[in-house]
Write a structure and sequence with these properties.
This protein is an alpha+beta fold and 210 residues long. The chain has 4 helices and 8 strands.
Length: 210
């Protein structure tokens, strides 16, 4: 993380109102710098990342699972905020890796971690120049981890959850529309096997959302 660093986040947990006011202003400035950076690489941003930022509010999403097989890395989320199309709050991200993922399990001190429910807090995307330019997705999680994924692109898939019941009540999904936990697990395995699969993704990018 270069803009929304763990250290920056920790300063925002201060009980000093003067410090909080300062951090809030600096946080806005960091957001402006990040958006300005994204604009410099806008025409090179993978379609999948554009789709994620255009359609999902990832802050405070619950991370249900993540795993890796070969060059594929998957993350299963339950969104805190409904997606723009209002289809479902259960989302599967499949990354096409270009290198080894790095997980810093000590990014946040123990007193600022939540081990029971892991939330997606903040994330950044960075262009990594080279003979074949790639991208790095850095994600700060509520359990204190910072996950860094080198990747070419990412695919998003949505499903209506059956277990637990949808937030709008048990009638919000039918067996034909939803997937239970076992089905989600089977789908994750399928995506891990299909390491080179990539469907069409929407174009356009409007910057990160807080």
């Amino acid at each position: 993380m270069k803009y929304f660093t763990p250290e920056f986040y920790l300063r925002g947990q201060s009980r000093d109102h003067a410090v909080l006011a300062e951090v809030e202003q600096e946080w806005d400035q960091a957001g402006d710098r990040y958006v300005a950076y994204l604009r410099t690489i806008e025409d090179r941003i993978p379609r999948g990342i554009r789709f994620l930022h255009d359609n999902y509010h990832l802050h405070d999403a619950l991370v249900l699972s993540m795993g890796r097989q070969g060059d594929t890395f998957v993350v299963v989320l339950r969104l805190e905020w409904p997606p723009l199309d209002m289809q479902s709050e259960l989302v599967l991200f499949t990354y096409d890796l270009t290198g080894e993922p790095v997980i810093d399990r000590e990014a946040l001190p123990p007193e600022h971690r939540c081990e029971t429910e892991v939330e997606w807090m903040y994330d950044e995307v960075e262009l990594v120049e080279g003979e074949r330019p790639t991208f790095l997705h850095s994600i700060l999680l509520g359990n204190g981890w910072e996950v860094r994924l080198p990747f070419r692109d990412v695919r998003a898939q949505q499903f209506r959850p059956l277990i637990p019941a949808p937030r709008n009540g048990p009638g919000g999904a039918t067996p034909a529309e939803g997937l239970d936990v076992r089905q989600v697990g089977a789908l994750v395995n399928e995506n891990l096997r299909e390491q080179n699969a990539a469907g069409p993704l929407l174009e356009g990018y409007r910057g990160p959302r807080s």
